[in-house]
Amino acid sequence: MHTPKLSKLVVAVAVSLLSWQVTATCSTDFTPIQQIQGDGAQSPLAGKTLTTQGVVLGTMYPGSKQPSLLIQSLKADSNPATAEALMIADSQLAALYQPGQLVQLTGTVRELGKMTALTNITASAVCAEQQPLPKLQLQLPVKQLNDWEALEGQYLVFPQTLVVNDSYPLARYGEILLADRRLMVSTEVKKPGAEAQTFEKQQQLHEIWLDDHSVRQNPEPIPFPTGGLSADKTVRVGDEVRGVEGFLVQTKAGYRLLPTKAPAFASANPRSNTPKTKPDGALRVASFNVLNFFTGAGQTPQFPTKRGASNADELVRQQGKMIAALSAMDADIIGLLEVENNGYATDGALATIVRLLNEKLGSTVFAFVETADKPGTDQIKVALIYRIASVKPLGQPAMNMTGPFVRGSRAPLAQSFVHQGSNTELLVSVNHFKSKGSCPKLPGADNDNNDGQSCWNAARVIAAKTLASWLATQPTGQKATHQLVIGDLNAYRLEDPVTTLEQAGWQHLPGATLDKNGAVHWSYVYKGRSGSLDHALATKTLAEKLVQFEHWHINADEPAVLDYNTEHKSKNQLKNLYAPTPFRSSDHDPLVMDFKF
């Protein structure tokens, strides 16, 4: 749980630690919990001092400095919009009372953070023992988002198998996002605009965050999967979770389920140590965003690098994962993205990648395509490396450093090759369009217009049009009917930049990408939604030669804490959460595709 989100609640709970007394009998004259909660976001009785009654469900955040009780009415009312449970903000009572006790309390109603609570308890009594806990069976999706407000504080049991959809805050706050299925980026499966908006609104009914029932930051051990996370014991997006039950609370970040028992995790999206086997005689092309691989060469001091490793240890760890991934791809041509734009010297980023990859493979297997020393104005660039025995460069490498590629979108790189096994020529262009973040401050076409495409969509469309026109000129000096565009277009499958390229005659690989539940392919997970920012598009003649295509899911589905970074990790975690394997070598999954001529 995010401690900052609870700061107001914790402060308010501390204020409530006044003296209380246990009375001998329970009055029949009390205010039902439902009347205290009301049918809105806040209590209609806020500020009132009153007496209420309920069964103790348990304690919120029992290991914190200021735990609170949760009680629930013995009898539900007829209004589905009113919550049946209430927070009792008194740490002394939280330590005294046990689940199943029917208690009566007198105090003042307040809104603490996002929850209605009874504070400043002046009287309390146990009315009965061993009452059954009122547990509500709940199936996702809920009918409407307001349903969660009416369930605030209650004990919920999810009888269905749930699916992990996000683990980004797992290591920092002990939270994972669950839903009844994998949730997709709206514009991955629906057209931008009204269709995408409606789809996303519906998806929000399918999810709930599972918290570790703690206010600690950087918990150790990391709570999920049950038994703790490690480099070898992961929890991936797509994995299944059963036996989920606990208390529903509301924080500034939204609704969270605090588990009362350990849920059962099951692998439903297992790791794959390598991509699918390359068919005999096929040409394999891959695209890989290496997530800001910076060596710091040429800067003083070398560390921290401008975007990547903060120190020498992190660089070694980053290299270990990246090279494990690259060497396992078995590719003949690899497009690289987010490589430090620091030239081609032996200590530069691109030369370092090729040197380490060749060392891993035991001989000089790969070489890089060399262009301008520092193309474009960005700190990162795209690059191409190739297997010397499989392909041979033809003509001249070309980069477009005009128009949208001066600033924003990185300058695209194109190189023609001949596949020596089939004597077939093709052109490969690697690309990295402008990201969706850092929205412009002034109004205009590049602002977020709420159609699902976020910011800078117009800039990405211009980049797509410029790229298509440029490649039509055969910029490498070699006439190639087989052409391939790969890279991170920072646009999901049905967004304008991708469809702009399709309208220009490029065919999206691998063709049909949708099934009845959404997209078959994804390369990125963001805020609990899966989608493809990374794409491959080919001319018709080359698309016809495709025999195999894969998003190799080694990164997007993995917890971010399994990456190379050392911040916010204990000595044990630095050891146990890291392995020089492909998994979480980046935040993007590589694309791997095979062509047979």
Could you please describe the fold and organization of this structure?
The chain has 597 residues and is α+β, with helices and mostly antiparallel strands. Strand 1 (49-60) and strand 2 form a beta hairpin. Mean pLDDT is 94; it is low at 2-24. It folds into three domains: 3-133, OB fold (Dihydrolipoamide Acetyltransferase, E2P), CATH 2.40.50.140; 138-266, OB fold (Dihydrolipoamide Acetyltransferase, E2P), CATH 2.40.50; 283-595, Deoxyribonuclease I, Chain A, CATH 3.60.10. It is elongated. The protein is built from twelve helices and 30 strands. A nine-stranded mixed sheet has the order 6-7-12-13-10-9-8-11-14.
Characteristic key phrases:
OB fold (Dihydrolipoamide Acetyltransferase, E2P); alpha+beta; 6-stranded mixed β-sheet; Deoxyribonuclease I, Chain A; 3 domains; 597 residues; 30% strand; 12 helices; 9-stranded mixed β-sheet
SS-derived structural category = alpha+beta
Coarse shape:
elongated
Our Rg estimate from Cα atoms comes to 28 Å
> Strand order of the main beta sheet, please?
6-7-12-13-10-9-8-11-14
| Poorly predicted tracts of residues | 2-24
Under the CATH scheme, the architecture of the largest domain is 4-Layer Sandwich
CATH class of the largest domain: Alpha Beta
Approximately how much helix is present in the residues? 10-25%
Task: Output the number of helix runs.
Answer: 12
| Residue share in β-strands | 25-35%
CATH superfamily of the largest domain: Endonuclease/exonuclease/phosphatase
Number of domains: 3
The biggest beta sheet is recorded as: 9 strands, mixed
Mean pLDDT: 94
Count of extended strands: 30
How far is the first residue's CA from the last residue's CA?
54 Å
CATH T-level topology of the largest domain: Deoxyribonuclease I, Chain A
Oligomeric state of the chains present here: single chain
